[in-house]
Amino acid sequence: MSARKETDKMESLVEMFRCFICMERVKDARLCPHCSKLCCYSCMQKWLTEQRAQCPHCRACLHLKDLIHCRWVEEVTEQIDHLKSKKSASNFEDSNDGKCEKHNEKMSVYCETCQVCICHNCALWGGLHAQHQFQPLEKVYEDHVNKIMERKSQLKGRLVELISLVQDVEKNVEGVRNAKEERVREIRNAVELMIARLDTHLKNKLLTLMGQKNALTQETELLESILQEVEHQVKVCTKDQLLVKSAELLHMFEQVQRKPMASFVTASIPADFTSEIVPAFDSSVFQIERFSQLRHKGDPVYSRPLNVNGLSWRLKVYPDGNGVVRGNYLSVFLELTSGLPETSKYEYRVEMIHQQGSDCTKNIVREFASDFEVGECWGYNRFFRLDLLASEGYLNQKEDSVILRFQVRPPTFYQKCRDQQWHIQQLESQSATQITQITSLKERLSIELTRHRQNNALPGTDVSFLSLSLLEQSLT
């Protein structure tokens, strides 16, 4: 037990003077000024130049000039090696070699056939190992130790590579996070500039409106003061005084009313602000005529296509309702008939126009955002009650028509640019196909013209040759 404790102490002492990079005895020792770990100068130099400028143990920023040279370590490690070798020799003699249980002799032979350690008596006289292959135990032991140490060295190299890979992944993670933060900073800066521009537009609109309001307020105050003055004169003046001032008061009224009211009527400032993030809606109007007849048929009706950036949209309407709501509700859906192959989200708005008067606040508006695939419909099965269409003013009974306005847009300008890029690629592909077809037709025409030129002397070929010549000119 005491020998085991001494061995553990020796191993702990050896570990203190082991390079934490190569895991071997430290050579030309250097000390990290941050974590005080010992390492070989060559190992640390290779690490700092080939990997990154930081300590592999504590990850602190480190340069070669910062390392502390420990000259005394060499002497200490030599003494430790000397003690270790003496201790190993003693242990090997005392315990590692062992004793043969049969002959109580030191085991010095290795039987390769049986793969066991035996003494020289067992090898020579035991009879159990006759005609077997033998090797000196010390040589076999050294061979196994060398193999183990070689594999150990390979594992240490693998460990260093794995540590390097872990650090590369950490560096990648850090790069990804930094890139994300950079995009966030860009977006925030862009949004702040957009908000500043919106504030400027608002300020300009308010300045115009305040100017209009001030002009009207001044005129209002002038009229109020004149009215107050006239009422005062009427109350305090005697009849003869009022008759004398009557002409003056009438003249004052005439001066005030000389300025036409049209001069106070100004154009309304539109309450619209351009968004630099979300694009505007593209819209189309669908007027459903002969609505009552279409209800009796029960089939869906379709609007004209709304083509935007290569995508084709149309409104699909069930005048008498769809499915379980048939006969009770107007069903309205938006359909993507052609577009990108992948699913994409789009915002859409369906509006039913109120046809009695011009109050747009009475229009029925439904707005939502859905993921569309080509051929897929999204909308509202219960858009509006059929029995209320006429009474609420949405069905023009004279013309028997209902008017629907549908609008659609991608949620961001990024997606809109993606749609446009896809449309451009489709147009370029079509153009390339048409150019190929034209080239093929030109080649065929050239062959036909050559053939007709060769046969030009034959009767009855002039008209055909002239037609082919004109066709060649049109294709050129």
From TrEMBL:
- Key word Ion transport present: no
Q: Where is the RING-type domain?
A: 19-59
Give Gene Ontology CC terms: aggresome; peroxisomal membrane
Q: Which residues form the MATH domain?
A: 281-408
- Entry keyword annotation includes Zinc: yes
Keyword field: Cytoplasm, Metal-binding, Zinc, Zinc-finger
* GO BP term, pick one: aggresome assembly
Q: B box-type domain: which residues?
A: 95-137
Where is this protein primarily located? Answer: cytoplasm
InterPro entries linked to this entry: Bbox_C, MATH/TRAF_dom, TRAF-like, TRIM37_MATH, TRIM_RBCC_E3_ubiq-ligases, Znf_B-box, Znf_RING, Znf_RING/FYVE/PHD
**Pfam families found in the cross-reference section:** MATH_2, zf-B_box
Instruction: Identify the SUPFAM superfamilies for this entry.
Output: B-box zinc-binding domain (SSF57845), RING/U-box (SSF57850), TRAF domain-like (SSF49599)
Give the PROSITE patterns listed for this entry: MATH (PS50144), ZF_BBOX (PS50119), ZF_RING_2 (PS50089)
Instruction: Indicate where this protein resides in the cell.
Output: Cytoplasm
MF terms per GO, please? tumor necrosis factor receptor binding; ubiquitin protein ligase activity; ubiquitin protein ligase binding; zinc ion binding
| Name recorded for this polypeptide | E3 ubiquitin-protein ligase TRIM37
UniProt source species: Clytia hemisphaerica
